[in-house]
Amino acid sequence: MSSITLLGTGNMARTIGTRAVAAGDTVEVMGRDRSRAEQLATVLGGGASVGTWGAVPAGDIVITALLHDGVAPVVVEYADALADKIIVDISNPFNASFDALAHGEETSIAQKVAEVAPAGARVIKAFNTIFRNVLEKGRPDVFIAGDDQQAKTEVSGFVAGLGLRPLDVGGLTMAHWLEGMGLVTVGLANNGVGHWDFALGADEVSAA
Amino acid sequence: MSSITLLGTGNMARTIGTRAVAAGDTVEVMGRDRSRAEQLATVLGGGASVGTWGAVPAGDIVITALLHDGVAPVVVEYADALADKIIVDISNPFNASFDALAHGEETSIAQKVAEVAPAGARVIKAFNTIFRNVLEKGRPDVFIAGDDQQAKTEVSGFVAGLGLRPLDVGGLTMAHWLEGMGLVTVGLANNGVGHWDFALGADEVSAA
């Protein structure tokens, strides 16, 4: 069982929170608008609690369920309140036409977060390749990037507890490519796959 | 049935050529070292022919089965001999430690090829996310990027003929992210998956 705090009260917070409550995890919700956090905690049930925006999160794993351009600013705002926490960035920094990354650099939101995170915080990229509808109803692979092995082990335990397969792809620089895989996933939905009920996964090979 | 020319005589040329011959495709091999091309054609069998390096390829689809830093130079060398051909770049421009792209820019080998390709040539990125051993024995998804829809349709037909699933991910700028997925695939092999008998694919979602 894991102890998580969701920063944000939107669709992804609800989706991850729902699975976490179902898995028996301890879930805390923090929203800048406290009433929305309370509303989400009520929807989640399972003893989900509400924390004060900006205060030290109760969860060991803090999931920033925010729009991509809000993630690093919120980590700056929280500052030392996130010391020693595991920060999980799930964002997709798409540009307006969903065909390139908005930051246009050889970086990622997760790496930007690592640059501003307080002492002891460890940053993980995860979940971003999975459409919300898939996370709601499926068992997709969850690709995880990060530099701290212990943090990856903890997040992997959380992911496995949700009934999903965690797959470590390597260090935090790989977050850039996971964000690119988010773009490829959208590209597949709009082109070769033609629908949104799929996720990229690592498929074992059987003989042809 | 497709008509392909393989530029190169290495492992990937042999692997793709073997599947193509088995599928009944017309296969031509071109190598800078003609004796190696003749050797590969003999190994492939199925009436595989040998072309002269630098001459107009017999195949409609020209697969550059070359190391990444050789692809654009060879396209420059062939020049107008590739006019109106479909050029399929399958390369992975990994750096020496296999954790970043060697070109370090917001581009891809496929896009570099498109910059130097002759009139009428259409460039496609495909196959690069698939380990050779998987391409030998499995039925992996083949991600395809390119700007020309007709060329993508032809390459998709070739891929489907090999018994693999072609999946269009979008325009040629997506080649950058497919090259990144090559890195992620290596990262998975070295980390979360722990072996090389898998490929990234688009997995349909069933209810959890």
From TrEMBL, chains A, B:
<dbReference type="InterPro" id="IPR036291">
    <property type="entry name" value="NAD(P)-bd_dom_sf"/>
</dbReference>
<feature type="domain" description="Pyrroline-5-carboxylate reductase catalytic N-terminal">
    <location>
        <begin position="4"/>
        <end position="93"/>
    </location>
</feature>
<dbReference type="InterPro" id="IPR028939">
    <property type="entry name" value="P5C_Rdtase_cat_N"/>
</dbReference>
<dbReference type="InterPro" id="IPR051267">
    <property type="entry name" value="STEAP_metalloreductase"/>
</dbReference>
<keyword id="KW-0560">Oxidoreductase</keyword>
<protein>
    <recommendedName>
        <fullName>Pyrroline-5-carboxylate reductase catalytic N-terminal domain-containing protein</fullName>
    </recommendedName>
</protein>
<dbReference type="Pfam" id="PF03807">
    <property type="entry name" value="F420_oxidored"/>
</dbReference>
